[in-house]
Design brief:
By secondary structure, this protein is mostly helical. It has one domain. The protein has a two-stranded parallel sheet. It is globular. The protein starts with a helix and ends with a helix.
Length: 407
C-alpha cells in the first residue's frame, strides 16, 4: 500500500472510530438519562475545534500586538456572538435559566492582572494549555502542573481568606440583580444579542469592502472531508464551531447539576482533587428544587446535601477537560502535529511559574478565558467584561516586556 493510500486510510479510520464512540456515548446518555456523559463528546469537539483554529486566548491577545494579527481575536468574538444568539434562543424557549456572573470587581481586577501576566509566561490560558498539552507541547504540560496548584492555593490554601473577602465585594443592580448589559440598558437579553450580532455583521461588511480592493486573490482550494479533518482552520471558522457548541454544552451542563456554559478552570483543579483526596461531594445531576442554590456559577447550580466536605467535584467539568485533551490530540493526530515538543529548561521554569499564576488569577476571578470571556461575555455579564479588559491589558504589558523586550 502506498504512503498516500495509508494516510488516507488512517485519517478516515480515526474519524469513523471517533464518531462511532462519541455517538455511542451520546446514545447511552439519552437512554439512561445520565446527561453528564454528554460532557465527553462536547469536550472532544471543544478540544478538536480549539486545536484546529489554534484558538488560545493568550495567543490571541499577544499576537495582536506582536504581529498586528487580530485573526484570533476575531475567532474569540465569533464564539461570543454565536453563543450569545444561541443563549437567547434557549432563554426564549425556556430551556435554561440564564446565569450570568456577579460583578465582583475586586476579584476580577486582581484576578485579571495575575491571570494576564501568568498566561504569557505559561504560553497559554487554561484551555490553551489543555489543548496544547494534547498535541505534545512540553511547556503546556509543565504549566498544567502549576495551574491546579495555583487554584487550590486560592480555594483551599493561604489565599483563601483574601479570596473570601474579595468575592463578597459585589456590585448589584438597584433591584439586587446581577449587573448585565441587558439590565443596564433595560432591554431583553435577546434584543441586545441581536443588536450586537447586527453591529458585528455591519463591521465585517465594511471591513471587507475597505480591504478587499485587490482582486488578485489566490484560487481557493476545494473543500473536502479529508481537508476539513486534516488541515488547520481559520480562527473565525473554529470560533463559529465553538459558538455553536456552546448551545448543547449549556443544555448538557444544566442537566448535569451545573447551570453555566463552557468552563475549564475548576475542572482542572477537581481532576487533581480526585488524585490526591477522597473527601469531597460529587455533583453529576441537578438536586431537588428545594435545595439551596450555589452562588458560584463556576461550580454547581445546586450544592449536594448532606455536606461532608467543602470540596466539590463536578463530574461534568472533569469529563469536559479530560475529553478536551483527547479531542485536541485527535485533531493534531489527523494533522500530523501530535508530537512531543522539547523546550529549553528556562522556558519550562517560566511555564511552571506561569501556570501557578494562571491558576491563582483564574481562581480569584472564578474563571478563565472560556468561563469568563467566551461564556461570560455571551451572557452579557459586566463583571466578566471587566475581567476580559484587565486580562488583555496585563497580557499586552507582559508580552511587551517578556516576549518583545523593552523596545
Amino acid at each position: 500500500m502506498s504512503s498516500r493510500s495509508s494516510h488516507n486510510t488512517n485519517w478516515l479510520a480515526y474519524t469513523l472510530t471517533s464518531l462511532i464512540i462519541l455517538s455511542a456515548i451520546t446514545i447511552v446518555a439519552f437512554i439512561t438519562k445520565t446527561w453528564v456523559l454528554t460532557a465527553i463528546p462536547i469536550g472532544v469537539l471543544f478540544g478538536f475545534f480549539l486545536q484546529k483554529g489554534d484558538l488560545c486566548g493568550s495567543s490571541a491577545f499577544s499576537e495582536a500586538i506582536m504581529f498586528r494579527d487580530r485573526s484570533k481575536l476575531l475567532g474569540l468574538w465569533a464564539v461570543i456572538v454565536i453563543a450569545m444568539l444561541g443563549f437567547a434562543v434557549l432563554d426564549l424557549l425556556g430551556y435554561v435559566t440564564l446565569n450570568p456572573k456577579p460583578l465582583r470587581y475586586i476579584s476580577y481586577i486582581a484576578g485579571g492582572i495575575v491571570f494576564g501576566v501568568g498566561m504569557v509566561l505559561a504560553g497559554g490560558c487554561v484551555s490553551g494549555c489543555l489543548y496544547k498539552a494534547g498535541t505534545g507541547n512540553l511547556n503546556s504540560l509543565i504549566a498544567l502542573l502549576g495551574i491546579p496548584i495555583g487554584i487550590m492555593i486560592v480555594e483551599y490554601g493561604p489565599l483563601h481568606g483574601i479570596h473570601s473577602v474579595t468575592r463578597n465585594s459585589i456590585v448589584k443592580m438597584s433591584d439586587g440583580g446581577v449587573v448585565t448589559l441587558d439590565h443596564v440598558l433595560s432591554l431583553p437579553f435577546w434584543t441586545v444579542a441581536v443588536l450586537i450580532a447586527a453591529l458585528t455583521i455591519i463591521g465585517i461588511v465594511f471591513y471587507r469592502a475597505k480591504h478587499n480592493n485587490n482582486n488578485n486573490h489566490p484560487p481557493k482550494t476545494p473543500l473536502s472531508w479529508k481537508r476539513i479533518m486534516t488541515h488547520s482552520w481559520k480562527p473565525w471558522v473554529a470560533g463559529l464551531a465553538i459558538g455553536l457548541l456552546m448551545i448543547p454544552a449549556y443544555l448538557s451542563s444544566a442537566a448535569s447539576g451545573r447551570n453555566y456554559p463552557l468552563g475549564v478552570t475548576h475542572g482542572v483543579m477537581q481532576a487533581e482533587l480526585l488524585l490526591i483526596d477522597a473527601d469531597f461531594n460529587h455533583v453529576y445531576q441537578p438536586k431537588a428544587a428545594s435545595s439551596a442554590k450555589s452562588e458560584n456559577t463556576t461550580t454547581a447550580e445546586v450544592k449536594p446535601a448532606p455536606v461532608k466536605s467543602d470540596k466539590i467535584v463536578i463530574w461534568w467539568l472533569v469529563a469536559l477537560i479530560v475529553s478536551l485533551v483527547a479531542g485536541s490530540w485527535l485533531s493534531a493526530r489527523l494533522s500530523g502535529q501530535a508530537k512531543l515538543l522539547p523546550k529549553p529548561p528556562d522556558e519550562l521554569l517560566f511555564a511552571l511559574l506561569g501556570g501557578v499564576l494562571v491558576g491563582i488569577g483564574a481562581a480569584f476571578a472564578t474563571g478563565c478565558v472560556v468561563g469568563n470571556i467566551m461564556s461570560g461575555w455571551a451572557l452579557l455579564s459586566v463583571g466578566t467584561i471587566l475581567f476580559g479588559i484587565v486580562t488583555m491589558l496585563a497580557n499586552w504589558v507582559t508580552t511587551r516586556v517578556y516576549l518583545m523586550g523593552s523596545k
